[in-house]
Amino acid sequence: MLRTHNCGELTIKDCGKRVTLCGWLQRSRDLGSMTFIDLRDRYGITQLVFNTDTNKDIYNQAKSLSREYVLQVEGEVKERSNKNKNLSTGDIEIIVDKINVLNTAQIPPFTIEDNTDGGDELRMKYRYLDLRRACVRKNLELRHRLSILIRNYLNNKDFLEIETPFLIRSTPEGARDFVVPSRMNPNEFYALPQSPQQYKQLLMVAGFDRYFQIVRCFRDEDLRADRQPEFTQIDCEMSFVEQEDVLNTFEGLIKYLFKEEKHLEFPKFNRMTWQDAMKYYGSDKPDLRFDMKFVEIDDVAKGKGFKVFDDAEIVVGICVQGCASYTRKQLDELTEFVKKPQVGANGLVYIKYNEDKTFKSSVDKFFSQDDLKVIAEKFDAKPGDLMLIMAGKKMKTRISLCSLRLEMGSRLNLRNPFNYAITWVVDFPLLEWNEEDQRYYAMHHPFTAPKPEDYPILFTKPGEVRANAYDLVINGTEVGGGSIRIHDKKVQADMFKALGFTPEKAQEQFGFLMNAFTYGAPPHGGLAFGFDRLCAIFAGADTIRDFIAFPKNNSGRDLMADAPSMISQQQLDELCLDLKKKD
Amino acid sequence: MLRTHNCGELTIKDCGKRVTLCGWLQRSRDLGSMTFIDLRDRYGITQLVFNTDTNKDIYNQAKSLSREYVLQVEGEVKERSNKNKNLSTGDIEIIVDKINVLNTAQIPPFTIEDNTDGGDELRMKYRYLDLRRACVRKNLELRHRLSILIRNYLNNKDFLEIETPFLIRSTPEGARDFVVPSRMNPNEFYALPQSPQQYKQLLMVAGFDRYFQIVRCFRDEDLRADRQPEFTQIDCEMSFVEQEDVLNTFEGLIKYLFKEEKHLEFPKFNRMTWQDAMKYYGSDKPDLRFDMKFVEIDDVAKGKGFKVFDDAEIVVGICVQGCASYTRKQLDELTEFVKKPQVGANGLVYIKYNEDKTFKSSVDKFFSQDDLKVIAEKFDAKPGDLMLIMAGKKMKTRISLCSLRLEMGSRLNLRNPFNYAITWVVDFPLLEWNEEDQRYYAMHHPFTAPKPEDYPILFTKPGEVRANAYDLVINGTEVGGGSIRIHDKKVQADMFKALGFTPEKAQEQFGFLMNAFTYGAPPHGGLAFGFDRLCAIFAGADTIRDFIAFPKNNSGRDLMADAPSMISQQQLDELCLDLKKKD
After folding, report:
1. What pLDDT does B445 receive?
2. I need a labelling partner for B205 at 20 to 30 A (CA). Which of A200, A230, A415, B378 fits?
């Protein structure tokens, strides 16, 4: 080893020891007769001291060094006069008598500090320098710790980690596959897995009983803000279980992670049906850090001559505590907010329940004080509260109101990322109607089991069939989801039929899985967590990109390596491919 | 849970308990008034009993069940009269009073037994049934255990597991890349990593100090017998280390795995230079389970008028103990063996040192008894030994003799797979001359550091430069290898020059790595183990395929999923690709 200690471990107990350290020059301060250098490595920062009186040569050498030089230094550990309580090594410093410059460094294009001056693009291009910043490094250290904890928990519960293939068969159902041309099988392609779904089910057919894998998955989608073309799942499956067993097992995992990593303990997680989540929060991933539940007020809002309400499929609102004092300007801001295309509402009705028990609303023309009082009672509003109401098509209005609710939560600082509100959302619909394609799609995937009691209406009322499917939601973010799978070949065939597959088409695309089910498939179910997202939530962060060592940008480019790139004609020829111009 | 216990855990202590088990019907035996069923799950086998006298209905139901049916049974644990010491549950049986058929099963196309009647192709097509066989399942259980142990060891040594990207930039140096067309960046391609080599070096530049990853890698090569297009590496890198530190750290890992998994302890691993490995074993991965070291006998074999020896660059042989009694037929077999194209020798000379101290050789015409005695002394041969000698070009002859040595080891049962002989091979050449391309290639990869003392001859005697590169060899198989990397940009530039890259070409292909090295790269090094191979060695098996859940065949096909396959015209259009006919 080129060092005797790392830069994070020396304490007062080491005083008098002769040590060798290696690291990067974080910063240096010249105080005339003395120079101080902060030497940095992954483990911490140690202060080096160079004194012109005691060793003029090394003092001069130290002065010549620049930021990010890689140094090996030898010296003696001394107690500091000026201790730094923020550093693990803050009690000591090293009186250096030997410097070996292991490597020089250009001046980095941005400062290697938590508060850097580098913009996003620049930091991505020089990701290896961005990763030197403690705040970024800590994210990947957290990720490492969580992966170790996850494996320990699941290993202790008899789960086996089994690697499934990355070069698989392309299946058009679901999102778009990345494909890989095969040279040995010309004109044929592998696909990269969107998830190991079919393989983990085959492992259950194979009798592996409990499987997990922390595994990369791939989706060739137009990238929204916080999506990556490759992402990591904690993928799990169990045999001989019912929904309750899956929920309990993985509730246990999440509790274990919070306990070990953050010393937080939780009671039994909340459970909410998908119906209730939509009705009360307008979302299948409700943010439960704050209340502000939806209240439907059709019965008291309609019939007063206000056409917007009278013509609406639903009149629904939220009661915001203590906001009756909102100014005209603030209320206008909210109206503008809901009219933004992302929110998509036509307008917003407010009712202030003033401290003096009078009401002031944007619909005073249609509603008397008594009418407003009746509405306020529906909302369980108190003097000082502000009611915000929307009306229109049921689903659309709920979704818009959800945005408004989250906005109000943010304005009122009710969304502290370290205040964890966790819920299971259960009883998802099995199928989802797609207007564009005029057909049903599987809401989770085509292997999700309908609830047995809803199976009889699969063909008569397909939209009403509920699935044994569930999501885990933390702070308004879906961190995982899964389902009990179909293990019966007749149910699976019916499912494909409900999705509009001919038996031939189903056989062509999923034949090997359906075939496997004829050889004794056990009842099974499972789920997958988004590992990148879970890490972000544990760190109280918004974006997953900071938890991925080498992420891609929104065009799927790696700015550092400049990938993707052109390949050679020889490579194309070997793969029997020609390039076409983009239309 | 659909069960109270699994099929491997009930013992004599559970007698009298009412239990529910789930599993597959392994086999049933009807003894007239009683039927026995072996119920199988991942954890074991439990015997079920059905007695026509006590419960005729359930006896009849049991008789109607077929192999591989999925059952849920309820009953009482009873002590067996006829105990089976080979089963963990062999002391008990279940008197069943309730059967629930969870799923039926077609008769499987081969028997689900360790000694199955299914051929390779059939078992690959129905891999989910093949995986039900205990002998295959145990391989994947071993793999899981090793992965847990590896992570624990490395985590305890401060290594961080960091995930590197799968969609990277294609670099033509090295083996052929699998490529992935980018839809968002038309006519551009990602490559799948052959290893995370460049990324792990960037992590060292980023200051992560110690990195590892158990990670899938991809090589589009024509598949030799035991190669897979996707395979798994234990990929590791350390900063501020010298070769000795890397060897000690990973020697520790391998020892830890043998201790924990197999209760085997090893002294310090042997070390051998590449030169010695080639000289004494004709291979850079010598099988040291047996001795039979090469002996060069040019000085005593030449000048006796035997042209084959006289004209040869080298005359070299092995002494096989106790084989002087080999018959003419046996010796002919050996001559045929060495003449096979895979071995490639022109012939074989033998000298028998008979028990009566006389000699008999295939070159008696040229060598007197005294001449042969001198040769025998060179070999340190004893009466009863057989000397086998080859001559010709130096490297070619050594490689052929290596095949013969291994063949003799096998014939003499000296290659017990559970007798582990481990060695480091060190001091590999930096460069390797390629006759076809008339240029040097990096023996490991272009980032491997030359030994400092050999750096001055990089351009004058490139073939003689040794690298700080090493392989770990177990029982004649390379299970891992690595090197100290170049961290100096001038050395790296010289290396690319020695490989025949123009500065522009080097910049184009490795620019981001070379650029990174200008910002303060620490001295670093590492290695990678082949995880599939390591698992096979621990199991004493020859082929890695049995340690991969869903392997591909020699044409890179997944026979079960039938991948690769054609993709749709829409997919091709989106990717701006046209297919060409194979020439």
Report:
1. 86
2. A230
What is the block-wise mean pLDDT of chain A (583 residues), using blocks of 10 residues? 97 98 96 94 97 92 96 97 94 97 96 92 96 97 98 98 97 86 95 96 98 97 84 98 98 98 97 98 98 97 96 98 96 97 94 97 96 97 98 97 98 97 97 88 90 95 96 97 94 91 86 91 98 98 94 93 93 93 76
- State the CATH number of the domain containing residue B202: 3.30.930.10
Domain that holds residue B43: 12-103
**Residues A574 and A183: beta-carbon distance below 8 Å:** yes
Residue of B nearest to A192 (CA): B180
- Among B223, B240, B487, the residue to mutate for chain A (most A Cβ within 10 A): B240
The pLDDT, as a whole number, for residue A369 is 97
Tell me whether residues B218 and A519 touch, CB distance under 8 A: no
Same domain membership, residue B308 and residue B227: no
List the beta bridge partners of residue A235: A213, A528
Q: How buried is B583 (Cβ within 10 angstroms: 0-12 exposed, 13-18 middle, 19+ buried)? A: exposed
CA dist A43 and A21 (Å) reads 12
Distance set, CA A36 to CA A97, A111, B426 (Å): 13, 19, 42
In a shared domain, residues B406 and B437: no
The torsion angles phi and psi of A562, rounded to 5 degrees, stand at 55, 55
Same domain, B431 and B492: yes
Asked if residue B163 and residue B47 are part of one domain, the reply reads: no
**SS3 track for A102-164:** EECECCCCCCCCCCCCCCHHHHHHCHHHHCCCHHHHHHHHHHHHHHHHHHHHHHHCCCEECCC
Sign of CA dihedral B507, B512, B518, B522: negative
Question: Averaged in consecutive runs of 10 residues, what is the pLDDT profile of chain B (583 residues)?
Answer: 97 98 96 94 97 92 96 97 94 97 96 92 96 97 98 98 97 86 95 96 98 97 84 98 98 98 97 98 98 97 96 98 96 97 94 97 96 97 98 97 98 97 97 88 90 95 96 97 94 91 86 91 98 98 94 93 93 93 76
- Which chain A residue has its CA at the smallest distance from B159's CA? A144
Contact A389, A350 (CB under 8 A): yes
Question: Does residue A277 lie within any of the structural domains?
Answer: no
| One-letter amino acid of B259 | K
The answer to whether residues A266 and A295 belong to one domain is: no
Task: Return the residue of A nearest to B139 by Cα.
Answer: A162
**What's A386's domain CATH number?**
3.30.1360.30
pLDDT confidence of residue B361: 97
Residue pairs between chains A and B whose CB atoms are closer than 8 Å? 363
Instruction: Check residue B505 and give its pLDDT.
Output: 87
pLDDT of residue B581: 85
The whole-angstrom separation of Cα A561 and Cα A407 is: 38
A167 and B230 in contact by Cβ < 8 A? yes
Is residue B66 located within the same domain as residue B94? yes
The helix (H) or strand (E) run that includes residue A235 is strand A230-239
Distance, CA of A196 to CA of A189 (rounded, Å): 18
Q: Nearest residue of A to residue B131 by CA position? A: A206
Task: Clarify whether residues B400 and B439 are in a common domain.
Answer: no
Residue A577 lies in a domain: no
Instruction: Identify the pLDDT of residue A63.
Output: 93
Give the closest of A167, A521, A522 to B22, CB-based: A522
Q: Say which of B151, B577, B579 has its CB closest to residue A151.
A: B151
> Which residue in B167, B520, B566 is closest to A229 by CB distance?
B167
What CATH number is given to the structural domain containing B65? 2.40.50.140
